[in-house]
Amino acid sequence: MNVRFMKRTMAAMMAVGALAAGAGAAQAEDAKVGFIYVGPIGDHGWSYRHDIGRLAIEEALGDKATTTYVESVPEGADAERVIRQLAQTGHNLIFTTSFGFMNPTLKVAEQFPDVKFEHATGFKRTDNVSTYAARFYEGRYIAGVIAGKMTKSNIIGYVGSFPIPEVVRGINSFMLGAWSVNPDVQVKIVWANTWYDPGKEGDAAKALIDQGADIMVQHTDSPAPLQVAENRGILGFGQASDMIKFAPKAQMSAIVDNWDKYYVARAQAIVDGTWESIDTWGGINTGMVEMAPYTNIPDDVKAMAEEIEAKIASGELHPFTGPIYDQAGELRIAEGAVADDGMLLGMDWYVKGIDAELPK
Amino acid sequence: MLIRLEPRRQHSQAMVYLSPVLAIILTLMAGMVIFSIMGKDPLRALHTFFILPVNNIYGITELFVKATPLVIIAIGLAMGFRANVWNIGAEGQLTMGAIFGGGLALLFHDSTSVFLLPAMLVMGALGGAFWAAIPAWLRTRFNANEILTSLMLTYVGVLVLSYLVHGPWRSPDGFNFPESRPFPAAALLPVIYDGTRVHLGSLIALLAVVGGWILLSKSVIGFQLRVVGKAPQAARHVGFRQKRMVWFTLLLSGGLAGLAGLFEVAGPIGQLQPQISPGYGFTAIIVAFLGRLHPVGILFGGLIMALTYLGGELAQIMMGLPNAVTGLFQGILLFFLLACDVLTKYRVRFGSAAPKGRAA
User: Fold this and answer.
1) Interface touch A81/B310, C-beta < 8 Å
2) pLDDT at A298
3) Does any domain span residue A60?
4) Which residues pair with A65 in a beta bridge?
5) What is the enclosing helix (H) or strand (E) of A156?
6) Cβ of residue A194 closer than 8 Å to a chain B Cβ
7) Overall domain count for chain A
8) Higher pLDDT, B172 or A330
9) Between chains, do B52 and A162 touch, taking CB under 8 Å as contact?
10) How confident is the model at residue A26, as a pLDDT?
11) Are A278 and A210 within one domain?
12) Is A15 within a domain?
């Protein structure tokens, strides 16, 4: 685009005086890594875990890397400006950690070809934009197995964020896991229509418990639903990070995002000059998805969960192994086949047996 | 020594203009204290917050991009507030404007017609006005409080948008993610300064300032607005029709909010997505009061408010300050503004002597 203009503004910013330390991105050997988060780092979930990954870069690379973050950036017109500000202030590697940052990331990346971008959970890549995500559905399958064993009312309460493929995939995987040990389990889903709003999330959890749920599952970022579970004396799972300190008596495990290894490797690639645009979708096998310690469950259930975790890690078990039918009764995955990544990425149907309608 | 407040016989004209300036100075001083307590260099922090965002052309244009929706919405709201019509639902009217105008862009997604954009502007304004017409009708027909109805319709509007981008208007190439297809070039607002994001909407915002000023100070209906607000009894005696005021101010403020929403989606965002506004409709209420419900004041108020957002982003990038500092600044500013308002109605007296003629 307008390169001359960019250079002028960059020069202007640097002239302000040592504020943009370490600018001059292209030649710099050291990594200057910027992050933008959709929530506050204190959400104890999604953004919090990305921030832990940021700190891992500082820890691992020492004085070879400096990091910066901007939190609570709305997924609207503001994102593009923040990403550009990071690019303009000499950051040479920028992680944009929410799906809604996809198009702004691409727009800025086009104007800063020397800066490398990493977009979480998206599907558009270019020469200087990588994508990465984690196979959380693997963890959700294990959670489903545990829930199927532990529920007495056979009603699971599920707090969803938005009916996007990632969340739908999680619900399907969870229920396939639950039905593998207990065919009578049913799930009740409430859409909070937010990623982070402790009040709304907590209200959704209360409504679900009032409908008879005795296991709480969430796909929103705050510990609120799990805290409600703790207060009402039922069991549940943590989301994105180990939330045991919020629910010492309720958390059975948590599906933990571990970005540390990936972030360190990508920052190291900048230092080494070996960064390339790639697509990464890591699961339990790469350590990107971890299960928090199994607690508040009997030993036999724990042993079963550990066994399934090992099988998923080794590739022996795939949560989406056919035959799998959708709600209309159509065969989506044939007997013996497993879902390919394309199907998983665009999943917009519930598996047969889920007694709910997907909001369209 | 005692400090006493003595009522003024007449509102101080000088203080009407001085108190916002005083409030800003006090805010800056309070900010310096806070930064010092946080262990940051206060001067550098203020520099980062208020100077750095606008020390280059790109930054200034971004300030306009951010201030545009705030100013446009606040002008409309101020008209209503002057006539005691409390439209709190501008956020919903903004969303409806984006839906009506953006829907046209999606309907004609392969159009190259020069009439598309003007038609979208009209539809955007109509969408917002339509959404504001509901509280207007409920108020004039059933005497329902427009504060409640307009506020509640906000949530309905946001959910309608959510439904559309999750369902019928979802992009066919978007892996079922909730976003519309990108608008065609003919549906995008022209950028008025090459290489930046500042668009036609910013010029229209300036027109709204001028138009609002003319309406308020030169037109009969502007006079009626002020009389209805300040002396409803008198207004009734001379035959000004209150219902007409309700309709006029709600349709005007709704239409302007709808226009602002359309500018966001046809400007910096370029498509429909679940989140299009980080609460501009609510922030504009603050902007309206910051600007003394006067169009020119609102222009300055909008720019200052926008600056605190931009500064907050840079303060995170440059100094590692948390995002909460932005909200803190806005809160302090409002606090001092309201506090300084006292000075327009009261006079500060030092000394302990009993005032003469204190009536019982």
Assistant:
1) yes
2) 96
3) yes
4) A31
5) strand A155-160
6) no
7) 2
8) A330
9) no
10) 44
11) no
12) no
Please check whether residue A21 touches B, CB under 8 A. no
Least confident of A23-27, A226-230, B188-192: A23-27
A188 with A313, same domain: the answer is: yes
Residues A162, B274: C-beta atoms closer than 8 Å: yes
Examine the domain organization and report whether A233 and A144 are in the same domain.
yes
Q: Chain A, 129-168: which have a CB under 8 Å from a chain B CB?
A: 162-165
A72 at B interface, C-beta within 8 A = yes
CATH number at residue A162: 3.40.50.2300
**Cβ B278 vs Cβ B284: under 8 Å:** no
On the CB side of A341, CA atoms within 13 Å amount to 9
**Are residues A119 and A165 located together in one domain of the fold?**
no
The number of angstroms, rounded, from the C-alpha of A134 to the middle of its chain's C-alpha atoms is: 6
Chain A hits for B324, Cβ within 8 Å:
40
Once rounded to an integer, what is the mean pLDDT over residues A264-284? 95
Are A94 and A110 part of one and the same domain? yes
Cβ count near A340 (within 10 Å)? 10
Are residue A235 and residue A302 in the same domain, yes or no? Answer: yes
Domain boundary among A286, A303, A331: A286
Matching residue, tokens 């949530």:
B155
Mean pLDDT over the full length of chain B: 89
Domain that holds residue A241: 136-257+291-345
Between the two ends of chain A, the Cα-to-Cα distance in Å is: 38
pLDDT, average across residues A183-209: 93
Closest CA to A10 of A93, A104, A102, A115: A115
Report the pLDDT averaged over residues A176-193: 94
Q: pLDDT tens digits, residue range B151-193?
A: 999 999 999 999 999 889 988 887 777 889 999 999 999 999 8
Residues A145 and A280 in one domain: no
Q: Which residue of chain B has the CA closest to A34?
A: B317
Q: Are residues A187 and A275 in the same domain?
A: no
Tens-place pLDDT, residues A58-98: 999 999 999 999 999 988 889 999 999 999 999 999 999 99
Whether B166 and A81 lie within 8 Å, measured CB to CB? no
